[in-house]
Write a structure and sequence with these properties.
Blueprint: E1 11-13, E2 32-35, H1 47-50, H2 57-69, H3 78-91, E3 99-101, H4 103-114, E4 118-119, E5 122-127, E6 130-136, H5 141-144, E7 152-156, E8 159-160, H6 166-173, E9 180-186, E10 194-199, E11 201-202, E12 208-213, E13 217-222, H7 229-242, E14 247-251, E15 258-259, H8 260-270, E16 276-282, E17 287-291, E18 303-307, H9 314-326, E19 329-332, E20 340-346, E21 352-361, E22 377-378, H10 383-387, H11 392-405
Parallel strand pairs: 2-20, 13-14, 14-18, 18-19, 19-22
Antiparallel strand pairs: 1-2, 1-15, 3-21, 4-11, 5-6, 7-8, 7-9, 9-10, 12-13, 16-17, 16-21, 20-21
Helix pairs in contact: 8-9
Length: 416
């Protein structure tokens, strides 16, 4: 896995967000393809060098009007106005994942990528210009409070979220353990928003659970694509293959993503070497291709995949790659649709820009961004199902995989 410091790039096929060694809140696991590049952009000497086709004089005129006419200009520092202008440049891209950080915020962001802080355990992002829950993580305050995928966050405590970026929202939601944050939530079907009080905690995000179902079907719940996922998947696969699994159900519901390298590694279990897992497409038209290079131990095992609104980024990459290459059925609901790559570039004074630099393309060339993955078999879960603790999506997956497994020979590893 690519993990370096300073002159390195760390791709995180996260969702808008954030996962980096078990982060709590959610804006880092989800940054699908977050490239953590601690480097400085070369200094551009003139607009002509930058290829700017516009009148920078407008910016300077605006600066002069503000300096000469604003009634309280004495309380405004020139450097803060410069940061405001830089922030405006990035916001003009209309991309929720591209953000300008002042030095203090840039330092905090870097600490968050590698650290642990108090939060609620939910991945958050933007949908239709609104702040939304991507997925509540398993066994976290967010899940226990009843938050669901696609819940709109109207307010954080007394702060309305309409003009907040994802990173700004994360900064307000997180806090010290045992403190309370109140989220005002609007959910489809509700007539009006409701306040939900959540007590922050340190979040330990699980990686993977698995069990054998009736009929020798291996059921794998993958919660995120973190550093532990490759080893955990290897251990689980050896165990269920040794037991003679006839089929696999891979559950990626509410999995907001993680490291790109992990998605590619896991793809190597299901695909032949050399098959395309995902492509990265840049503004220049250049593409970087990531191919399966694993043991292909599951490439003949019948498999189905569960997805929902909380499946994002690396989850969409893996699910899309298996469908494109093997026609593996996706069951459940449409995925979130997070398919861009972000890179963090440091500026000379300690400020930074996190910028979207590329898009993910599935093996057949389809974009993930905003479109998401449509399931081959749509199955919804109703409020009645939740109350009765029924899982019709899993039930359908079991039905489909059992029918496929009956037509296949049994693959079994010999135990040592």
């Amino acid at each position: 896995m690519k993990f370096l410091k300073n002159q390195s790039i760390k791709r995180i096929a996260k969702t808008i967000g954030i996962s980096c060694g078990g982060l709590v809140l959610a804006a880092l696991i989800f940054y699908s393809g977050f490239q953590y590049a601690l480097r400085q952009e070369p200094i551009i000497q003139s607009p002509a060098e930058a290829g700017i086709n516009g009148d920078l004089g407008i910016l300077w005129q605006t600066w002069q009007i503000a300096k000469n006419n604003y009634f309280n200009i004495a309380g405004i520092k020139d450097q803060d106005m410069i940061y405001g202008a830089a922030d405006g440049v990035v916001k003009s891209l209309n991309d929720p994942y591209s953000v300008f950080f002042k030095p203090s915020d840039a330092k905090k962001f870097e600490e968050d990528v590698g650290g642990i802080f108090g939060g609620i355990g939910a991945e958050i992002g933007k949908r239709n210009e609104k702040l939304v829950i991507i997925a509540p993580l398993k066994d976290t305050p967010a899940e226990r409070a009843g938050l669901k995928s696609e819940d709109y966050i109207v307010k954080i405590d007394d702060l309305f979220t309409a003009d907040l970026s994802v990173d700004e929202a994360v900064k307000h939601i997180r806090g010290e353990k045992a403190t309370t944050v109140i989220l005002t939530i609007l959910r489809e079907g509700w007539k009006e928003p409701k306040e939900i009080s959540i007590i922050r905690d340190f979040i330990s995000i699980p990686t993977l659970d698995w069990k054998m179902l009736e009929g020798d079907i291996a059921y794998i719940q993958l919660y995120n694509f973190n550093e532990n996922a490759t080893a955990a998947f290897y251990k689980a696969s050896v165990e269920f293959l040794t037991k003679g699994a006839k089929g696999v159900i891979l559950d990626l519901r509410n999995n907001p993503g993680g490291f790109l390298e992990v998605a590619v590694n896991l793809g190597g279990w299901f695909l032949n070497k050399g098959q395309i897992v995902v492509k990265e497409k840049f503004s220049s038209g250049k593409e970087e291709i990531f191919r399966a290079n694993g043991n292909s131990a599951l490439n003949q095992i019948p498999t189905v995949i569960l997805i929902n609104k909380g499946s994002a980024s690396a989850s969409e990459i893996l699910a899309g790659a298996l469908r494109d290459n093997r026609n593996i059925k996706l069951i459940g609901e449409k995925s979130f649709g997070k398919g861009t790559v972000q890179e963090l570039q440091n500026l000379k004074d300690g400020s930074a820009v996190k910028i979207s630099i590329a898009q993910w393309l599935l093996p057949k060339g389809d974009l993930i961004e905003k479109k998401g993955l449509e399931p081959d078999i749509e199955v919804k879960i109703s409020e009645e199902d939740v109350k009765a603790k029924r899982d019709p999506q899993l039930d359908k997956a079991i039905e489909i995989i059992k029918n496929e497994a009956l037509r296949m020979p049994i693959f079994k590893l010999k135990a040592n």
